[in-house]
Design brief:
The structure is a homodimer. Chain A is α/β, with parallel strands linked by helices. Chain A folds into two domains: 2-233, Alanine racemase (TIM Barrel, Alpha-Beta Barrel), CATH 3.20.20; 252-330, D-serine dehydratase-like domain (Lyase, Ornithine Decarboxylase, Chain A, domain 1, Beta Barrel). Chain A is 30% helix and 23% strand. Chain A has helices at residues 4-20, 35-43, 54-62, 78-90, 100-110, 137-146, 167-187, 200-203, 236-240, 277-280, 334-338, and strands spanning 2-3, 24-25, 49-51, 67-73, 92-97, 117-123, 150-156, 194-197, 225-226, 253-262, 268-273, 293-294, 301-305, 310-313, 326-330, 343-348, 351-357. In chain A, strands 2-9-8-7-6-5-4-3 form an eight-stranded parallel sheet. In chain A, strand 4, helix 4 and strand 5 (92-97) form a beta-alpha-beta unit. The longest helix of chain A has 21 residues, at 167-187. The interface between A and B is large, with 56 and 56 residues.
Chain lengths: 365, 365
């Protein structure tokens, strides 16, 4: 269930915040995969979309989105090159790249079409997943240019922001990496048009808002655009990281109490709801309180999850909810939930208000 | 990718093993959700299917499966009662029940159709999820009978078998619970037709094969049928629990090396493949070695997972696989992978041999 008023408020708030900082907003659509939500983001001023796969790009391009960044270090085989060329015929398509090898391979397979594909060199700003060190960015950019690709700048994903106390540290490391990577490209003679960062935990933080005198300096953020995704919905991770309030959470999973579990002493202790990993996803970082939260019961904890069952520990001394009661579950990681359902129900002021298809669900490649 | 020869061997082996023990086999179809696999299971002698939801039952019934057990303590509202009645018109439908309240509610909503729905009372055999203690089974059965439902017996899921060293202990607790629950129903005057247990870790274990003199006794297994699911494919959990060999694993996720990650010292250390939680699922029990395994590289470990990236730690001193190399990933929990994809590729002797639709994907309710 998506509360459309909360969704719209989240979209408007992020649009205003990025505009106030002079940054372009290119929301990550892997979070929602829904055409109607992309339309709302673009109407609110987003310059285009970010996606994770060529398949997602195809779905949104077909629906009329003209400017798409595939923020992934693709290994572009010949069939994928054909798909990228088709996408680039009528659209502005940008792709991530993080090695000379992948740039050369992509350029070779794109052939004469390489010049229509822009690339951003991916930087590792501390998440230590994909991406190169900023000092290695120019070498990748040179390989991309040699392969005929249009080098447009740099990007990074500060995924290490997903831990308590980390968002501010991560946003500073991100800013440092982007600045240094962009400087390396400029020094190598490239015109840097795009310096792209952002995650929902960091998107609302300004790295220059610092109490740390070693960091503060008289300058603006290095980046030119932000790519947050989860902000449209919020989820239990964002809440537990302090990055959203319960009132900001637009998506919940409607679930039913199906079973009361008695303790060894025969006392009612926990209960079971019919939302499991096949709708909530099973992401559970070590710092999370459980496998999601109950929106209307902040003291409850979801302590176990299987495919169709979640085990809820209830505050001691309180009567358990009756079997049959409906409870709203906030998933830990909302991107996984949207990738598990074919459609979503819309809610306005508590009443059903339509449905949206999850058009790009399952487009993993 | 599903290796059809391995799939067929797994199906035949479980069919033979249950037949040799005089047990009926009712495979859990939530694992695969594929009509063609259900057909193969039934052709090999399965008496019917187990499913988790009414939606899954509808998909398989429409395809001609006539005997279906929804092994879940459903809270049957009026719309769900209408769906169950429709299913029961031409099929044998059995539903789980674990409280007098849910039995009464289901019976009331089914109305005159209640007598066509068989119920099995769910027992908690040590997993402590849903299910009642065996000594409480007769009270639930009486409520079901009072509500007009056809009480057929008892069932349990020994989910606590999913931990190293636990399968044999779990299968004995399962057997004890089933025996005691069935005895309670018989003592209360019910004719117990079905005593249903099983999980893939326990299905190949006979609780009477015991080295424990306190357990061994001169009798057969209590159960009459088994409901394993994962055995058709195998997965990394089953392998790490010692319940299957690599040669038994029928399903893998084709993935591509997309990025090499350098250590702080600039040395190649790990690499990134393009299979993430959106195809592998993110189940990761504490005892697992990681987020799945590489079928052809037993010493590699998948140490981190995000939506479209898995981080692979490679044995020290070995050269990393090249970018672009294809690797076969074994998911930790194959039921989640099948629920993430709309179709699967079939492989025979290494060559592509067709595709199957995942017909019941996403049928969560």
């Amino acid at each position: 269930m998506i509360d459309v008023d909360i969704l719209d408020r989240n979209i408007a708030r992020m649009a205003a915040a990025t505009q106030a900082r002079g940054l372009r907003l290119r929301p990550h659509a892997k979070t929602h995969k829904v055409l109607e939500i992309a339309e709302r983001q673009l109407a609110a001023g987003a310059v285009g979309l970010t996606v994770a796969t060529i398949g997602e790009a195809e779905v949104f391009a077909k629906a009329g989105v003209r400017d798409i960044f595939i923020a992934y270090p693709l290994w572009v085989t010949a069939p994928q090159a054909a798909r990228l060329r088709a996408l680039a015929e009528a659209n502005s398509i940008t792709v991530g790249v993080d090695s000379a090898e992948s740039a050369s391979f992509m350029g070779r397979n794109l052939g004469a079409g390489a010049g229509r594909i822009a690339v951003l060199v991916e930087l590792d700003s501390g998440h230590h997943r994909s991406g190169v060190r900023p000092e290695d960015a120019a070498a990748v950019a040179r390989a991309a240019a040699d392969a005929g690709l249009d080098v447009a700048g740099v990007f990074t994903f500060p995924g290490h922001s997903y831990a308590p106390g980390m968002p501010m540290a991560a946003v500073r490391q991100e800013d440092e990496a982007l600045r240094r990577g962009a400087d390396e490209l400029a020094a190598a003679g490239f015109t840097v048009r795009t310096i792209s960062g952002g995650s929902t935990p960091t998107a609302s933080l300004d790295p220059t808002d610092s109490l740390d005198p070693a960091y503060s300096r008289d300058r603006a953020t290095a980046g030119t655009e932000l790519r947050p995704g989860v902000y449209v919905f919020g989820d239990a991770q964002q809440f537990e990281l302090g990055r959203c309030e319960p009132a900001d959470i637009a998506l919940t999973v409607a679930s039913t109490v199906v079973s009361h579990h008695r303790t060894a002493a025969g006392e009612p202790g926990r209960f079971i709801i019919d939302a499991g990993s096949k709708v909530l996803g099973s992401d559970r970082p070590a710092w999370a309180s459980g496998y999601g939260r109950l929106l209307d019961h902040p003291d409850a904890r979801i302590t176990a999850l299987s495919e169709h069952h979640a085990t809820v520990e209830w505050p001691q001394g309180l009567a358990l909810p009756d079997r049959g009661e409906l409870l709203r579950v906030v998933p830990n990681h909302v991107c996984l939930t949207m990738n598990l359902v074919d459609e979503v129900s819309l809610v306005r002021e508590g009443a059903l208000a339509g449905r949206w298809a999850v058009a790009a669900r399952g487009r993993n490649s």
